[in-house]
Each structure stands twice: as structure tokens, then as C-alpha cells.
Design goal:
GO terms for molecular function: ATP binding; ATP hydrolysis activity. Keywords: Amino-acid transport, ATP-binding, CBS domain, Hydrolase, Nucleotide-binding, Transport. This is Glycine betaine/L-proline ABC transporter, ATPase subunit. The structure is a single chain. Strand 9 and strand 10 form a beta hairpin. Helix 5 runs parallel beside helix 7. The protein has 2 domains: 267 residues, P-loop containing nucleotide triphosphate hydrolases (Rossmann fold, 3-Layer(aba) Sandwich); 133 residues, CBS-domain, CATH 3.10.580.10. The C terminus is likely disordered. The longest helix is centred in the middle third of the chain and has 18 residues. A 6-stranded mixed beta sheet has the order 6-7-8-3-9-10, sandwiched between helices. By secondary structure, the chain is of the alpha/beta class. It is elongated. It binds adenosine-5'-triphosphate.
């Protein structure tokens, strides 16, 4: 995550209904949303919510229907006015802004993409994308230029003159996205933006958003009730529980491997963790020898000290060359050979830090040896033990784990090894 904060929310509340401030004492007494509704006629939609969103971060807010997601995202651009709290964008509280300041923020800083596209039916695709620029007073030539390049960005070149109803749902949402991106906002607010799309198109749009974001580096706030979508898109995920309270904020891996409470646990129990958890999170440090500097003596000493029978060999740039085994280093020592070159064994399983551990399961069953983690330049980062992979997917508390294992064994056999 980028550490520079773009949006900071402090103790935010939204209470719908007459005279909402009188609800605060009831909240302090710990009354439930239902009790408060009965007593006061007010609905607590967002309840004392605080969090930060980093620049360039895709921050997903997820929760079940009625948990307050839409209310929360609408507070961010004040489509809904919060009852209490602060919303700082680049350090400025938008709740203190007058109409003119707010207009500017909505025009240049924040853009919203809606679930049902919100296109104007009697305008062409191009005119729809231009519309937001038009009301911000931009001259015709500039806005056409910006609209065209924005349509190009979302893959709609050639559809400028089409009418919205001539396009599929996925394409209409691309128009919605192009419109939101046209004035190059710093923050993109996406409210269930893909939820109305067919599953296949939805997956495609998610992939495209990831590709776009890799180029754009915007701050994206994405609302969804779909956990798979949240896990796929989010750098971090906020899980909103009933009554608009935060249950957990964390990276997809943190939420899957360490759910904060039973509510989050219930959410994540059916997820196949091995597809989400990556090599980097179960990687350990591993000792290495440098082929340019270290000989058999050093290698033997290091292995003996750590009670290991093999050690990783790298070059001076820490690029992985292979491993050497203790029997061989001892033999070379006796023969007074100085270089490890002749005993270097380069048939080593490797994985990238971002590889999902599911991809390592076959290897985990196939070999006792640790897996070497190397990046795209071949630089050695650490090792993953076969046991760690299996432990991660067979976590007793996780209903998904044993299923994965047994399914895997059914398909592949376990090679007669104990697991
Ligand atoms: N204008 C309103 N007046 C009164 N209550 C409201 C209003 N808007 C939302 N609510 C209530 O606030 C709570 C949160 O609603 P919100 O729409 O933010 O939830 P959500 O998580 O986005 O749900 P969904 O996924 O169904 O849209 C709900 O109990 C809802 O009934």
C-alpha cells in the first residue's frame, strides 16, 4: 500500500430520520440498530467509522445489503451529508466546504461510477462522456479531445456515435467509466459498478479495471457485496457489518488468514485461501552462500551451524544459481577444492513472490525440498517449506482447507507420502 494518505475518515456517522442527534446517547448505551429505530424512528446507517485510504490504493468497502456501503460512499462526495465526523481529502475536511468549494472537489477531485450506469439515453456515447466536462464549463474542442481519449482508454474507440441503448451492459458501463475518467479525477468512487453485469462480462471488467489502475494509479473506492470481487480488486478491504460498523480492515490475505471475528469468519469460510494467499506471505528467510566469495568450507560451516543438509548458492547480485549439499561440500574440502562450481545442483523448484500457493501444491506433494522464491530478475528472496504450504491450506479452522487437500489428493494422489 502507498503510505501517502488521500482520504481520511474520522468518527463518521450517518443517521437517517428526524432529529438524528438525539440518537447519540442511545448509541453510547450500546443500543442496537433495531432498538434505536423503534425508540427514535431513526436508522443508523454508518456508525462511528474511521479509516484512511492511501493514494494509488484500490480500497474496497464490502458488506451485506443494508450494512451502509452506499451511504458511506455517498458521504465521501456529500451526495449524502453525514450527521457527524470528518472526511479529509488531502487534509481538507469536505464537511467544512461551502457550495463552491464542494463543486470544485466534485468536478476535479472525485468522480463517481454508478451501478446502473446513469447514462443520458438521448445523447450519443461521445456526448455522454462530454457531458460532465460541458457542465464544468470546458470549451468544446478540449472536451471533445478529452472525451475521445477517455473512450479510447476504456476500449470504446469507434462507438462514439452509438446511442446507449445500442450497447450491451458491459459497454454501457465502459461509457460510465469513460465519463468518470474524462476529467482525470484523483479519486474514483465506484458504487457496485459491476454488480448489474453478467458474470462473464463482470469478470472482464474487473480485469480491465486492474489493468487500467496499473496505468492510472488513482485512488479508487470500490463498493461491492461480492467477496470474490473484493478479494480480486482490493489492495485493502473494509468489511462493514450490520448497523454500519467496521468489522475489519485489511489486505485480502489478512482478512482470509486472520478474520477479526465470527462475522468476518462466516464471510470468508468458503473461499479457497490457496488461490489468494501468495508465496511472499509464507516465505521464510534462508541462508545463502555467495559463489564468488564462499567456498566449501564456509558452506559446510553454515550448514552445520543451522543443522541443514543443503544451502542456497547465489552470485554477487544475489541471483539464484542452485543449491549445494553437505556431503559434497565436505568431500570438496577434503580434496582441497576451493570453488563450489562443480557440485552446484541447479534443479531447484522456484516460485515468484506473487504466485498463489495453490500453484505450489503439486510441488509440495512432489518434493521434500524447500521452494526457492525468486523475482523476475532471478534474485533470491527466501524459501517456502512444503510443510508451510500444506499447513496454510489445511488450517483446522478453515472449512475450505481439507476440501482442497482431499480434492487435490483425489486428482493427483499423494505419492504415498504422509500429509
Ligand atoms: N434515505 C434514507 N432514509 C432512511 N433510511 C435509509 C436511507 N437510505 C438508506 N437507509 C437505510 O440505511 C441503511 C444502510 O443503507 P445502504 O443503502 O447504505 O446499505 P448498503 O450496504 O448500500 O445496502 P445495499 O447493498 O442493499 O444497497 C439501511 O438500513 C437503509 O434502509
Amino acid at each position: 500500500m502507498e503510505h501517502e494518505v488521500k482520504i481520511k475518515i474520522e468518527n463518521l456517522y450517518k443517521i437517517f430520520g428526524p432529529n438524528p442527534k438525539r440518537v447519540f446517547p442511545l448509541l453510547e448505551q450500546g443500543r442496537t440498530k433495531e432498538e434505536i429505530l423503534k425508540k427514535s424512528g431513526c436508522v443508523v446507517a454508518v456508525n462511528d467509522v474511521s479509516f484512511e485510504i492511501g493514494k494509488r490504493e484500490t480500497f474496497v468497502i464490502m458488506g451485506l445489503s443494508g450494512s451502509g456501503k452506499s451511504t458511506l460512499i455517498r458521504c465521501l462526495n456529500r451526495l449524502i451529508n453525514p450527521t457527524a465526523g470528518k472526511i479529509l481529502i488531502d487534509g481538507e475536511n469536505i464537511l467544512d466546504m461551502d457550495k463552491e468549494q464542494l463543486r470544485k472537489v466534485r468536478r476535479y477531485t472525485l468522480s463517481m461510477v454508478f451501478q446502473h450506469f446513469g447514462l443520458l439515453p438521448h445523447r450519443t456515447v461521445l456526448e455522454n462522456v462530454e457531458f460532465g466536462l460541458e457542465i464544468s464549463g470546458m470549451d468544446k474542442e478540449t472536451r471533445r479531445e478529452k472525451a475521445l481519449s477517455s473512450l479510447d482508454l476504456v476500449g470504446l474507440k469507434g462507438y462514439e456515435k452509438s446511442m446507449p441503448d445500442e450497447l450491451s451492459g458491459g459497454m454501457q458501463q465502459r461509457v460510465g467509466l469513460a465519463r468518470a475518467l474524462a476529467n482525470d479525477p484523483e479519486v474514483l468512487l465506484m458504487d457496485e459498478a459491476f454488480s448489474a453485469l453478467d458474470p462473464l462480462i463482470r469478470t472482464q471488467m474487473q480485469d480491465e479495471l486492474l489493468t487500467l489502475q496499473a496505468k492510472m494509479h488513482k485512488t479508487i473506492v470500490f463498493i461491492t457485496h461480492d467477496l470474490d470481487e473484493a478479494l480480486k480488486l482490493g489492495d485493502r478491504i473494509l468489511i462493514l457489518g450490520p448497523g454500519g460498523v467496521i468489522r475489519q480492515i485489511g489486505t485480502p490475505e489478512e482478512i482470509l488468514s486472520d478474520p477479526a471475528d465470527d462475522y468476518v469468519k462466516a464471510f470468508v469460510q468458503n473461499v479457497d485461501k490457496s488461490k489468494i494467499i501468495t508465496v511472499s506471505s509464507i516465505m521464510r528467510n534462508a541462508q545463502v552462500v555467495n559463489i564468488d566469495k564462499d567456498g566449501p568450507g564456509t558452506a559446510t560451516r553454515l550448514m552445520e551451524k543451522a543443522s541443514m543438509d543443503r544451502i542456497v548458492v547465489v552470485d554477487s547480485d544475489r541471483k539464484l544459481l542452485g543449491i549445494v549439499k553437505i556431503d559434497d561440500t565436505v568431500r570438496l574440502q577434503k580434496q582441497k577444492v576451493k570453488s563450489l562450481e562443480s557440485i552446484l545442483f541447479d534443479q531447484v523448484y522456484t516460485a515468484h513472490p506473487t504466485t498463489p500457493i495453490s500453484e505450489l501444491l503439486p510441488v509440495a506433494f512432489d518434493s521434500e525440498d524447500p521452494i526457492a522464491v525468486i523475482d523476475e530478475d532471478g534474485v533470491f528472496h527466501g524459501a517456502v517449506d512444503r510443510g508451510a504450504i500444506i499447513a496454510e491450506v489445511s488450517d483446522e479452522n478453515d472449512d475450505g482447507g481439507p476440501v482442497i487437500l482431499s480434492e487435490f489428493i483425489e486428482q493427483n494422489g499423494n505419492g504415498g507420502k504422509d500429509i
